[in-house]
Q: What sequence folds into this?
């Protein structure tokens, strides 16, 4: 399939997941959001499950591309930019942000029964931990970040990000509020005095 | 219904949730784990949904009872005991811990569509934040905990606990490892020098 054709199907999968959730999703629902027939979809993907795994790979690729763009800034700025990115994910359609989060949580609840899904969730988690860990180590080398254990702190931050997303879906907890809490943690507990006040927390406050 | 009868149904609901998950659960599955008929269950609970809400209320009651037992210790010890409790929840059957976590995550993914479930998830979250917040304030008054914003820190800790539970289900992340990370955070970032070294982190390490 051409990249454009594949891109169209990935976008259609996103839209259909937002509309129907994971459990009720059918190949027909996805086809309805493309100019292709269900038969064409089946020609390229053996099953709904195969298409979904491809979709998760696609999300991962897009996500890592965005993160890996060089910012030309220092390690602390990179860490903050990463937190900003994961706490305010850009969505093709802003209104579907909540619906997509719900579908992703449904997928996570499926992960124990499904190694394909589980491996991909693990991949996201590993990538986030590794990206944060690298920024922390670079920040310590540059004297911007205190002498902390980068593994522990990276894992802690990623666990909080996961919790923020779960709570956003389950109890409607404002993502912007947790975003602010994460920045406060970085400012108060991680930055050396040299970087004091670099994070303008008040700006984030306005998002609530 | 007698308390014993109700207790039996709650235990049967727990067992059936572990076995079948939320989506596939039927009243018959629950009845099969009691000496009652499905008709008797329907006499007491209008629907599977009503029984499940009752079950969540029952969990909440048990949880708050355990937390509210006076320990006779200081605020820092209480905070640590609370973290220990939520990170190593006692289960009627140890082998079903993972299955139960999966069912709870499924329920969380249902919360956006179901205000009854959502309200109960919110209640758990509010209770945890409030319990941690109280320990933090008492700890600051006693000079054991540094001058931090108790609301922010309590919310951050609870968000991490939620993330740890999601990750335990979705990617099999070891709960004991996150438990250790939380204790390290408390030791390094929250305790005053007066309380230095009070947490024996090595002991937790052995749980991994």
A:
């Amino acid at each position: 399939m051409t990249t454009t054709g594949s891109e169209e199907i990935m976008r259609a999968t996103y839209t259909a997941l937002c509309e129907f959730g994971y459990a009720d999703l059918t190949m027909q629902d996805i086809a309805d959001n493309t100019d292709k027939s269900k038969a064409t979809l089946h020609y390229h993907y053996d099953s709904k499950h195969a298409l979904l795994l491809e979709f998760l790979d696609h999300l991962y690729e897009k996500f890592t591309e965005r993160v890996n763009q060089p910012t030309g800034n220092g390690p602390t700025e990179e860490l903050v930019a990463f937190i900003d990115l994961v706490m305010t994910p850009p969505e093709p359609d802003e209104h579907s942000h909540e619906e997509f989060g719900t579908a992703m949580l449904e997928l996570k609840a499926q992960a124990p029964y499904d190694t394909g899904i589980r491996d991909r969730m693990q991949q996201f988690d590993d990538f986030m931990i590794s990206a944060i860990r690298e920024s922390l180590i670079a920040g310590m080398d540059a004297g911007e970040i205190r002498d902390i254990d980068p593994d522990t702190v990276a894992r802690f931050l990623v666990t909080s990000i996961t919790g923020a997303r779960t709570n956003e879906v389950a109890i409607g907890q404002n993502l912007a509020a947790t975003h602010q809490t994460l920045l406060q943690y970085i400012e108060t507990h991680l930055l050396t005095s040299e970087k004091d006040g670099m994070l303008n927390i008040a700006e984030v406050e306005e998002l609530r």
Summary: The radius of gyration of chain B is 19 Å.
